UniProtKB/TrEMBL annotation:
Membrane recorded as keyword: yes
Organism: Streptomonospora mangrovi
Presence of the UniProt keyword Zinc-finger in the record: no
Residue ranges of the TM segments: 12-38, 44-67, 108-131, 137-157, 169-189, 201-222, 321-341, 361-384, 391-408, 437-453, 473-491
Keywords: Membrane, Transmembrane, Transmembrane helix
Taxonomy, superkingdom: Bacteria
Entry-linked PANTHER family: TRICARBOXYLIC TRANSPORT PROTEIN (PTHR35342)
Protein name, per record: Tripartite tricarboxylate transporter permease
Length: 506
């Protein structure tokens, strides 16, 4: 990034609208993450319509701020009430809640905030350094590569399937089918519109996102027990900030776990929960003596490792999102929808034709992590209030926001109906254990895959296999696809071989 581009990006970033949007995203994300039962994905989906009338830098920066702040916010309820607000906060609860029971809840919250900020900042720098070179490669992509890239992206459905590969692929296929609704891109004929004018432009992405992630989640929330969740405020007494000696002791763990988180985030489908567990496990493995015995019983290192890793995942996940258009998690899938709504197609064009906007967004992500750390350290005691909001208050507010936000995008009642149907479908899917994320992935990548394969068929002039095999980038992507398909099979065989080898040796 040259100096002129850097200055343009800073000029786009440091405007009143963008700074207010990032601040609102940080505060809103922390609150959403702290509320058990809600998630950053739901918050992002709910606020996508609000960004529609905003400047792209302000809108996408706010969504990214919610993403990283909600990841931290999940640690608040994990530490205070042993109930992670987000899946990424589960590892934090192991030691965080024990510290609260020991009267060190305030210190645990401060360590969580510091570790989250450092992890997020490290991942933001990784985004700034690694995204541009990878985007240069994507400039050489044509129709065949976009088709193969979409196929590769669809293969991560298994990792978004919450333990059921079959259910995940079924949801993904449903998303692919929904992507075919509307006017055919080559022939101009309507498909599966059933004579409805509103469906000729296809299934609108924003109503589908809000329904599948926000409305369905709030319906699940409404089923739960009514009333507020009581936080252990007694654990907030005593010294809030860790001592200098404690900070020195956990600094190495934070840096190492941040690197792990960035790497895990780049892997499609891994997510913050995996990153936090890997970071936590490595921190425990590197510890020795009495320090190792503290893990699970109230270790500041355990809290720092889990939080720095899961927040570092966020920046790592943004790298394949911005450069290749591959969302590695449900949250980044929703952010991808936000990018598309603002006319920003991930890939090389983002870093050439829209470079000043793209770099401003990445710098905004860096600023959001710094601001999150400041707000979290200064206001952790007051953010406890978020864990006490009654469900009966939350549900009607969120439902109203779902309806108003959906209607506001196109001023269309049809969009509201799409959102309601998507919400009902998402609710039923959650009840039977089918994750909604693969549907969104299929809906977004389905159109890219169809366009790529149909254009490449025309370009191949009858020799499809030869055409694909003659393109170096296509061969690389084919290799990645084969590796993704074979990796689970090989891993399963290796797991079977290890016990057999052990039996022979005994």
């Amino acid at each position: 990034m040259d100096s002129a581009l850097f200055l343009d990006a800073l000029a786009n970033l440091f405007t009143v609208e963008v700074l207010l949007a990032i601040t609102a995203g940080v505060v809103g994300g922390i609150v959403i993450g702290a509320l058990p039962g809600l998630s950053g994905t739901m918050g992002i989906a709910l606020l996508v319509p609000i960004t529609f009338g905003m400047d792209p830098v302000a809108g996408i920066s706010m969504l990214a701020a919610i993403y990283t702040s909600a990841t931290y916010g999940g640690s608040i309820s994990a530490i205070l009430i042993n109930t992670p607000g987000t899946p990424a906060g589960a590892a934090t609860a192991l030691d965080g809640y024990q510290l609260t029971r020991q009267g060190k809840g305030a210190k645990a919250l401060a360590v969580s905030a510091i570790a989250s900020m450092i992890g997020g900042v490290v991942s933001a720098f990784a985004l700034l350094l690694l995204a541009p070179p990878l985007a240069q490669v994507s400039l050489a992509f044509s129709a065949p590569e976009y088709f193969l890239l979409a196929v590769f992206g669809l293969l991560i459905i298994g990792s978004l399937s919450a333990g059921s590969l079959l259910k995940g692929f079924a949801a993904g296929v449903l998303g692919l089918l929904l992507a075919t609704v509307g006017i055919d891109i080559l022939t101009g004929y309507p498909r599966f519109t059933f004579g409805t004018t509103a469906l000729q432009s296809g299934i609108e992405l924003v109503p589908a996102l809000i329904g599948l992630f926000s409305l369905s989640q709030v319906l699940i929330l409404a089923e739960g027990r009514d009333g507020a969740t009581e936080a252990m405020t007694s654990g907030l007494r005593g010294r809030a900030m860790p001592t200098l000696a404690e900070l020195k002791r956990i600094l190495g763990t934070i840096v190492r776990s941040s690197g792990i988180g960035v790497f895990v985030g780049i892997l499609p489908g891994a997510g913050g929960d995996i990153g936090s567990w890997v970071g936590y496990n490595e921190a425990k493995r590197f510890s020795k003596g009495p320090e190792k015995e503290e893990f699970g019983r109230g270790s500041l290192k355990g809290v720092a490792a889990a939080e720095s890793a899961n927040n570092a995942v966020t920046g790592g996940a943004m790298i394949p999102l911005l450069t290749l258009g591959i969302p590695g998690s449900s949250a980044t899938a929703v952010i991808l929808g936000g990018l598309l709504i603002h006319g920003m197609q991930p890939g090389g064009a983002l870093f050439t034709e829209q470079a000043d906007t793209t770099y401003a967004i990445m710098l905004g992500f860096l600023l959001a992590n710094i601001l999150m750390g400041i707000i979290a350290v200064a206001g952790a005691r007051y953010l406890v209030i978020a864990t006490k909001v009654p469900v009966r208050v939350l549900v009607p507010i969120i439902v109203a926001l779902c309806v108003v936000g959906t209607y506001a995008v196109n001023n269309s009642v049809a969009d509201v109906w799409v959102m309601l149907v998507a919400g009902l479908v998402g609710y039923l899917m959650r009840k039977v254990g089918v994750p909604p994320a693969p549907i969104v992935l299929g809906l977004i990548l389905g159109a890219i895959a169809e366009k790529g394969v149909r254009q490449s068929l025309v370009m191949a002039q009858g020799d499809v296999l030869g055409y694909y095999l003659s393109r170096p980038l296509s061969l690389v992507l084919l290799g990645l696809i084969l590796m993704s398909l074979l990796a689970p099979v090989l891993a399963k065989r290796m797991r079977r071989a290890v016990p057999q080898k052990a039996e022979v040796e005994t």
